[in-house]
Amino acid sequence: PSGHHEEIQNMGLQEDFDAAAKDAAEGVGNMPKITQDQKLELYALFKQSNVGDVQGDRPGMLDFTGKAKYDAWAKLKGMSQDDAKQKYISNVNTWKA
């Protein structure tokens, strides 16, 4: 039964994450106080939540945006996908307030 409870919790977490991702997709324009670093953090948490640890090669020297996104994601290496989802949800809720 304890495994079942965890499954139910994770389903709730996924629903909360999906709702936060929708808010973020619609709301970054409605979050005028959000900084570029915060946008990168949201991107990295989203990738960590869905994919896990950073993958692929770091983009080349002239791809500044790609490098920034890669580096932000790489900082989260080792964070569990559930922890990344919880932090993502928390950040979206804080920044959209």
What does this structure look like?
The protein is mainly alpha-helical and 97 residues long. It has helices at 2-27, 36-50, 64-74, 81-95. 69% of the residues lie in helices and 0% in strands. It is built from four helices and no strands. Helix 2 packs across helix 3 (64-74).
Kindly summarize this structure in a few lines.
With 97 residues, the protein is mainly α.
Question: How far apart are the termini?
Answer: 37 Å
H-E string: HHHH
- Counting helices, strands and paired strands, the structural category is mainly alpha
Major sheet summary line: none
Question: Total helix count?
Answer: 4
Identify the overall geometry. flat
Poorly predicted runs are none
Share of helix, binned: 55-70%
Strand content: under 5%
- pLDDT averaged residue by residue: 88
For the secondary structure, the number of strands is 0
